[in-house]
Design brief:
The structure holds two protein chains of two kinds. By secondary structure, chain A is α+β, with helices and mostly antiparallel strands. Helix content of chain A is 28%, strand content 9%. Chain A has one domain: paralog of FGE (formylglycine-generating enzyme), CATH 3.90.1580. A three-stranded antiparallel β-sheet of chain A has the order 1-4-8. The termini of chain A are far apart. By secondary structure, chain B is of the alpha+beta class. In chain B, the strands form two sheets. In chain B, strands 2-1-5-4-3-8-9 form a seven-stranded mixed β-sheet, sandwiched between helices. A two-stranded antiparallel sheet of chain B has the order 6-7. The longest helix of chain B is centred in the first third of the chain and has 38 residues. Classes of the chains: A alpha+beta, B alpha+beta. Chains A and B meet through helix 1, helix 3 and strand 6 of A and helix 1, helix 5, strand 6 and strand 7 of B.
């Protein structure tokens, strides 16, 4: 009888653990300074859970089966452009070889909806950047030359025709895979990256187009890859589908 | 002992059923939505009336965007604590307002959408309306962070929160027709509203 109970307990333990965050890990939070900002604009990030992997085509198919109004033929054009799920053959099918590759050509609206349906949400820029500055061994490798060089190498390569599967790059300090080296990822507040189309260097924001726009100096001049991410966030619109832009979800820690 | 086992079993069932419930709810919502879409074929794919967010007006009434469909709408995203651009954007819209007769204005409404839901309460909006002499034809609305971000993205408005509680943001005036489609957008402050006025005139003809 005792054995039986122990087994049951173990089973329930597994179940509870497995149920609460089976595919997520804890990110400890910290302070994030946006790329173009003053010291006073430090963002404090609370600890949160992050998906270990980017969302795959297979994951996204499950969502489509339950939410058919988000399939590629039914989605409203306010929520996605014509690139939406371009790599899929139909509303619910794609080549088996990309099943475990990250889903791309996905709009911000669709990514946001997907996360909501999992009881999760999209990460903020600050959350994403804090998780992504971890190398394999350090929680903050933003000053690590080798780490930055590795990311830059990826950024400067062209996209492979078939995206590799998730879990094919490296697992960082927190246990999160593929934050660099596979696809770029949507963030909840990507639209906080403000530049005018023509702004260069320190020209500043065009004051008639943007309210505010006083300072436009970078804090992280050595981190070229973070410039690239900033540029990419400032150039996309929420309904865009982009062949190397995917997403993953995060979740608040209970009580935070 | 037996009791414990029963309790465990009940707990197990409970865990399972909770989870199931949670999962289905999201889909259920979506199924409802699909039905609504079928019923409501008048709402075009590009219409902002597709958004289901709930908003609070300055008179504390709840409003959804669909309810804006009886008039054409001239809209802008603002925050009332803004010291530089927002008063100017309001002045720019008032300039547009002045270009129309009383009769024409019966078909036009002016909408200020808050990008600062925490501070732009109905009370604050009433104060702001008084300060800027906004008449009954002006609607000021605010919602939550999610809805705010969603509408900003639909209107292609960029918003960067600043440390002092303010925002850097795009200055755009949007013209929305009775079907919720964006008919025209005027970018930048203190522009000659000639084009905007022309577009409004075509819509109210």
């Amino acid at each position: 009888m005792h054995k039986l109970i122990t087994i049951l307990f173990l089973f329930i333990d597994l179940l509870v653990d497995g149920q609460s965050h089976p595919t997520m890990v804890n990110i400890k939070g910290g302070i994030f300074l946006p790329l173009y900002s003053l010291d006073s604009q430090k963002t404090i990030v609370k600890p949160f859970f992050m998906d270990i992997f980017p969302v795959t085509n297979e994951d996204y198919k499950k969502f489509i089966l339950q939410n058919p109004s988000w399939s590629k033929t039914k989605i409203k054009s306010i929520y996605a452009d014509t690139n939406y799920l371009h790599q899929w053959n139909s509303d619910t099918s794609f080549n088996a070889q990309i099943a475990l590759s990250p889903v791309v050509n996905i709009s911000w609206f669709a990514a946001k909806k997907y996360c909501e349906c999992q009881g999760k949400r999209l990460p903020t820029v600050a959350e994403w950047e804090i998780a992504a500055r971890a190398s394999e061994t350090k929680p903050d490798a933003s000053k690590d030359f080798k780490f930055n060089q590795w990311i830059l190498n990826w950024v400067s390569k062209s996209n492979p025709k078939v995206l590799p599967h998730v879990g094919s790059t490296f697992k960082n300090y927190y246990g999160v895979w593929d934050l660099h080296g596979l696809v770029w990822e949507w963030t909840f507040d990507f639209n906080s990256a403000l530049t005018t189309g023509e702004s260069r260097g320190n020209s500043g924001l065009d004051n008639t187009f943007f309210c505010g726009g006083g300072s436009f100096a970078s804090k992280d001049i050595n981190n070229y890859a973070s410039f690239m991410r900033f540029a990419s966030r400032s150039s996309v619109k929420a309904k865009y589908g982009v062949p190397n832009l995917g997403f993953r979800c995060v979740k608040n820690k209970i009580g935070s | 002992m037996k009791l414990k086992i029963i309790a465990l079993c009940i707990a197990t069932i409970f865990i399972f059923s909770c989870n199931e419930k949670e999962e289905k709810e999201c889909c259920k919502k979506d199924i409802n939505k699909t039905e609504e879409v079928v019923k409501d074929e008048m709402t075009a794919n590009e219409s902002i009336f597709n958004l289901e967010s709930k908003w609070l007006k300055q008179n504390k009434d709840s409003i959804s965007l669909k309810e804006l469909s009886n008039k054409i709408t001239v809209a802008a995203m603002v925050f009332t604590h803004c010291e530089s651009a927002c008063p100017r954007i309001v002045a720019d819209i008032q300039r547009i307002e002045k270009a129309f007769s009383k009769e024409e204005l019966q078909n036009i409404q002016f909408l200020l959408i808050s990008m600062d839901p925490l501070r732009d309460t109905p009370e604050r909006f009433i104060e702001f309306s008084k300060e800027h002499q906004l008449n009954d034809n002006w609607i000021c609305i605010s919602s939550n962070n999610d809805a705010t971000m969603e509408i900003a993205n639909v209107l292609n408005v960029r918003i960067k929160p600043l440390a002092g509680g303010g925002f850097d943001h795009s200055n755009t005036i949007h013209l929305i027709d009775k079907n919720g489609n964006i008919a025209f957008q005027q970018n930048g402050l203190a522009q000659e509203p000639t084009e905007m006025i022309e577009h409004i005139k075509t819509l109210i003809k």
